[in-house]
Structure formats: C-alpha cells, structure tokens
Amino acid sequence: MPLEKPRLARRDWLKSASLGGLSTVLAPHSAAAHEAVAEPPQNKVRGIVFMVSDGMSPGVLTLAEAFSQLTRKRGTQWWQWLNDRHVSHGLMDTASANSLVTDSAAASSAWGGGKRVANGCINIDENGREITPIAAILKASTKTRIGLVTTATVTHATPAGFAACIPARADEHAIAPQYLNRVDVILGGGSEFFRPQSRPDGRDLRADFQQAGYQYIRRRDELLSSRSAKILATFTKGHLPFSIDRTHDAKLTARVPTLAEMAEAALARFLPGEQPFLLQVEGARIDHAAHLNDIGALLHDQLAFDDAIETVLRLTAGRHDILVVATSDHGNSNPGLNGIGAGYRDSTPHFARITRLKSSHERVFAEWKKQQTGHPADLTALVARLLDFHLRDDEAAALHAILAAKPVVEWNHQLHKPEGLLGQFIGNHTGIGWNGTTHTSDPTVVTAAGPQASRFAGIVKNTDVFRHFLDLLA
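Above: the chain sequence. Below: its structure as tokens.
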C-alpha cells in the first residue's frame, strides 16, 4: 500500500549559548516542544511515542548536556524539557517481581503487560502463565498500529516486552514470529533471527513477513526511499553499531541509519490519517556502553537518542493529539564526573578528553581478540590508536592479564573484568567514575509532553505505564 508522505511543520533552530568550562546556559526552549504541549492535558490521545534511553542512569543527562555543549556547541533537547514548566516530570519506580534491580525484560514487561515479572522473563507471570502484551490487546480491540524501533536486535528484551511472551528473553528466535501481523513497523538489528539459515527451525521469516505485506529492508538507503506502510528492517546481523563506531566508519554510516532516521521513518507511516498508534523508540546501546564502562560510546549514543527526541518533537509540532514520553527502564553503573585536583579545577579539562575517544570498548576488545597473541606493549598500542591515551606499564600488564583470564588484584568484584579495568584506566584521564558494570535500582527520569502528559508526573510505578497507555488508546 503506498505511503502518503506527511506534511511536517518546520522548526526554527535556536542558537545555544557557548560553553564556559562545563557551565551551560540553556537556550530558549524549542518551538517544537512548546507547540507539542500547548493544548490542555485532557485532550484525546490518538498516538503515543514512548522513547526509552535504555540503561540511562539519571546522571547521564548532566554528562550528555555538557558533552553536547563541548562537541556541538548547543544543548540537548531533554535538558530543555527538564527546564520547561509546560512539560510533566516524574521518577519511575523500576523494580521487578523478584528484585529491587530490574533487567530490561522485566522492565518492558511491566510497561507492556501491566504486571511485574521475574528478571529474564518477557510477559510470563510467576505461575508460568502468559500475560497478553499491549500490542496484541490494542491490535485486536482498536486496530492500533504498532511500531518498534531500536538500536539493538529488534527481538531484544525492550521491544519484545510490548509484543511478545517468552519464558527466557534470550530465545529471540521464538520472539521474532510473534511480531508477524502484530507489529506494523519493525526497525533495528537482528537479521539472524529471521533468516532460515540461522534459525533452528529453518523457517524463512523474511518470506513470511513479505507474504503478509511487509517490505523487507536491509540498508539505510532502502529505508529512506521506502513508501511501504508495513516494514521489517534489519540492518545488521546483531545489534546496530555504537554511534561512535558508526560515525568513524564510512561504510557503516552509509549502510546503517541513525535512531533519529528510524524514528522519522516510523512516524511517517503513523502520522497521516486518523488511525491510533503506539510507537516505542529505544536507544538500546546506551545500556550496552554502561555495561562496558565506556563513556565515549555511552555519550555518543545518548546524543543520538536526544537527536531522536528532537526529530519526534519536530514531526509532531502543532499536533495536539500525540503524547511523547521519554524515560529509561533502569540505571546502569551510575557514571559520574568526579572532582579532580585542587578545588576540582582539573575536572573540566579531564572531561574534555572524552572528545578524543574515537572507538567503543567493544571494538577495542574485538580487535584484540583477532590478534590472538600479543604482549602488553601491543595492547598499549591498540588502546593508543583507538582511544588516544596511553596505558601505564602496570595498567597494560593488568589489562593484558585479565583478558587472558589470569588473576589480577581488584577489590571491587563488579569491576573485576576487562571492561571494569579499562573503564577505570580511562577514568583516570577523563574523570569519569563507575560504581560497577551492572544495572542499578535508582528511579529513572520520566518526561512527558502532549495530551495527558500529567499522568507521568510525580512517582510513576513501571506498571502504571501499561494502564495509562491502555486507557488512552483502547
């Protein structure tokens, strides 16, 4: 079915004040943000855009604002939101059924199924019963159009929580077929879960989706030129690359779209007409970077997520029937800028060194693995080439040893791994400290704009999201 290209309101860009050290002066609020929230909150909601910065600890917002001022000479959209009295602000209670610390599967199940489940499960209760996900409910009751956009595999825990039921989140081969005719727009990575040669059952899911009217897309240019109303797009075998790696690789830049481009492609299919829709947009690799104690990858992906927020607000500017919500499912490793030097005067120049990082830790470890053999001096050279700083001899020896599964002295068990050591060594240069390499129990920030945004003010239990979405769209 041909896709009508929506008429989109233009947004005037406002100049941000320059960065003095890390101090920031916020630019005037964007026209798009104001237009999106101009109507009173009791207006009827036709569509919801639910944006998830996966694994974003609250302090990341501060770091991203400062990093954006350093690298882009302007602030972030989310920071402007936080300073906008027309926008609703809250904190999310993120616990799962069996822990104060949730994983992404349980977190998204709370949003998408309305019940807290054990970590590792997707919409399966404590008695092993399936919980019908919101995509299935809305599709059956109102023919709501559903979209899942992510920088992870499209069958990963966060998107799956809105559309699938499975006892073990890792069984992505079993999640993939559950999207057929339940989710209309599917964008991200994970081609291995749809190809017959990489599926245990040999099923060609790509062909099944195409027979059901989906266009199957594999490249950025195909997405940008597509006019199909229903699409399945998997741009990589696994997760999409970190933004920091994509930016520094011309082939990846040409082949893989940004999160903002994917969000725009999804909304272009939902905004025209009057049919209700629910769109989830996930910046998944923020969480992965935090697990790796990788501040460069984390901040680049957080800015990519912020670009997606700006895109969504631009496309929905002047629309008084679209609710936009941004949040995170949980914190991760709690990165923060430490006070360094006398009077902490060295914190600012240390933070600025993050701009010199040109690679993710994932790429560093992958390249070291390819070398198979090597000495600490080789590891030092690799880190210098990709991360632009030099390991001390004792640091190189410790990192070399732990990569070879040899014992090293590290009293924090959370950091007793290659990513923990590398994160600490880089932190000595950047000022960034980490409390571990896993999720945390911190409440996450919730920001909402548009009709019914006030539902997300104050303390919001993660299961409340399901109830609100069902009330507004069912």
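Residues 1-41 have pLDDT under 50 and may be disordered.
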